[in-house]
Amino acid sequence: MNFLVFVKQVPDTETKIQIAGDGKSIVEDGVNFIVSPYDEIAIEEALLRKEALGGEITVATMGPNRGEAALRTALAMGCDKAVHLEDGAFEGADSFATAKALAAVVKKLNPDLVFFGKQGVGTDNTQVGQMVAEMAGFGHIGMCVKLEVDGDKIKGEREIEGGRETVEVSLPAVVVAQKGLNEPRYPALRGIMQAKRKPIEKLTVADLGLSADEVGAAGSRTEFASLELPPAREAGKKLEVEPEVAAKEIVAFLKNEAKAL
Amino acid sequence: MILVFAEQRDGVLKKASKEAVSEGKRLSSKLSVPVAALLMGKGADQAVDEVKKFGPDKVFVMEGASLDQYSADGFAEATANVAKEQGATVILFPATTMGVDVSPRVAARVEAGLVSDITGLDVADGKLVAIKPVYSGKALATVKFKSDIQMVTLRSNVFPLEENSSAPEVTKVDAAGISPKGMVVSTELKEGGKVELGEAAIIVSGGRGLKGPENFPLIEEVARLLGGAVGASRAAVDAGWIEHSHQVGQTGKVVSPVVYIACGISGAIQHIAGMGSSKFIIAINKDEDAPIFNIASLGIVGDLFKIIPALTEELKKLA
Lengths: 261, 319
Known about the structure:
- Chain A is of the alpha/beta class.
- Helices cover 30% and strands 29% of the residues of chain A.
- Chain B is an alpha/beta fold.
- A 7-stranded parallel sheet of chain B has the order 7-11-6-1-4-5-12, sandwiched between helices.
- At the A-B interface, helix 3, helix 4, strand 7, strand 8 and strand 9 of A face helix 3, helix 4, strand 7, strand 9 and strand 10 of B.
């Protein structure tokens, strides 16, 4: 079976966000970039499937040169080869323009099963996996927390309000991984060494048969007008009192301030 | 036209859908265009009376064998069909698990810009301007649209409900021709009465300070008495004390309840990102230097194993 995993390189979740001079992006100096945590779950799921069913895993990312580190991490975890969409024309893409480019990768590689993480930590959109599925004409399982491959179809559980639902989709299909699906492995030293020799193919807009106005900022349907830090919260009163007094204070607060009782 | 995807399950309209229709109605006056609610799937017909209360000019009802069970691509195709036929320029979704799953496919079909999980919406020069938390709320983006059709999903509990009775024209739409690729084959709901994290007005959350899974019932009781939901820090989830579906924070849910009660949670940056936009925050922690106190509207320094039982007693007196 052919597997394709899309990953995104994002700022470490520990990052303290600072707004850059343009007022619509973040300061990247000193930021540690990692594979988006949900994408690690997507990689792990592809590895588990390959271990069970055989086949080959391609990992792909779109982004600047530093994105190669994310691909090396995925290769070190066990993916077989990598594709890097690196072209100035891809820059500034929103979800739609990103999906357009990634759907072209799907068409080119013709995978049976495509994995995405639930969201790129940072943009927090949960859009690209579903959009790629639609553009590629595939069914998908979103927010997937349990997956079974059964011949030419997959069955997966997804989280919904107050429970779970089981979705069945024929292959080829997209799976959007949610935390809980598996526990991603750490790359072993041997994997890290092997990853250095695994191939990374660079693809440009032209390689995907797309034109520059379909991708990147030009192909985007939305744009950031500005980015701001949220208003700072001020600490209210802090009490160190007997438990019974504290309980009464909390109830009074819920009643009088929050008007929640 | 403004089209609102009003999620219903078995005839019950979601609260988040009511919020979305209310917002659609407000937008309709700002943009001077009509607003329509779209009800889809089994039971859609029974949700008509409820959706009318929030003032739509039109209601579209789509039922049929192909839509009896939820299907992301089937529901997306159906929604996109209505949007195209009606010439919708704005499509609103609640940011429910269904809205989040369907909306990107609709956007891909109608080539629309989509902004997810927004917390503010306005109009400038006849186009929408959305406020969207990014980096789990560590920053707020103002997002504009370049596409003709503009789509957003609305975060629960943010956009106020507004009853606005109307006598809309109700139109049945044929669902024939929709052939879903993926389909729900079974649904398993947990025992009733539990309030969902994303929809809760009050969240009582526990962290490492709870010391073990056996102590979660302490905060579950407080949540039950307050009619709220139970949350947890990543530390508690990673330790296996409670399921991931309860996790609040950067790799869990981002929530904006009216009141967030943090019990034994120190306040790591990833956790604060997930709940920092709560209207009121109450923190109980034995460490007076815990960062959570920097953002707490009410901070209680002390032993949660003494304070929470006392709080439970106080709340029972009110019941």
